[in-house]
From TrEMBL:
Keyword Transmembrane helix attached: no
Protein name: Response regulatory domain-containing protein
Keywords of this entry: Phosphoprotein
Keyword Phosphoprotein: yes
The species this protein was found in: Candidatus Magasanikbacteria bacterium RIFCSPHIGHO2_02_FULL_47_14
Superkingdom to which the source organism belongs: Bacteria
SMART domains, sorted: REC (SM00448)
Modification type 4-aspartylphosphate: residues: D56
Length: 125
């Protein structure tokens, strides 16, 4: 019997990037839940029980740091891996993201998609 697909919840308000990440993780065998809206993340998480989150920080309807706080405040997701994928590359932003409970922080312009895929796979093993 094949192993169940790992679920990934991607929060990204740039539609092109969201489609790119969704397509790639689907190709890699993940069950992808996607949203461009930060205000629905916890509802989607409760409905789908993702194995990992990818969160952008700068969202049109919210702040990714607040989403991470909400994820970590929920007992069901306290230990679920979180990967930040953002254009914010200042050291203080990276430190804040990691301090709030993210497992990894990638600056979009400095990171290849394969590196993100490899990291996500490692975190859900």
């Amino acid at each position: 019997m094949p192993a169940a697909k790992k679920k990934i919840l991607i929060v990204e308000d740039d539609v092109f990037s969201l489609r790119l990440y969704s397509s790639r993780f689907t190709q890699e065998g993940f069950d992808v839940i996607e949203t461009p809206e930060g205000n629905v993340v916890m509802r989607l998480a409760e409905q789908n029980k993702p194995d990992i989150f990818i969160v952008d920080i700068m969202l049109q309807d919210g702040n990714g740091f607040e989403i991470i706080k909400d994820i970590r405040a929920d007992a069901a997701f306290k230990k679920t891996p979180i990967v930040i994928l953002s254009n914010l590359g200042q050291e203080r932003d990276i430190e804040e993201g990691l301090h709030l409970g993210a497992n990894e922080y990638f600056v979009k312009s400095n990171t290849r998609l394969q590196e993100i895929v490899d990291t996500v796979k490692r975190l859900v093993e």
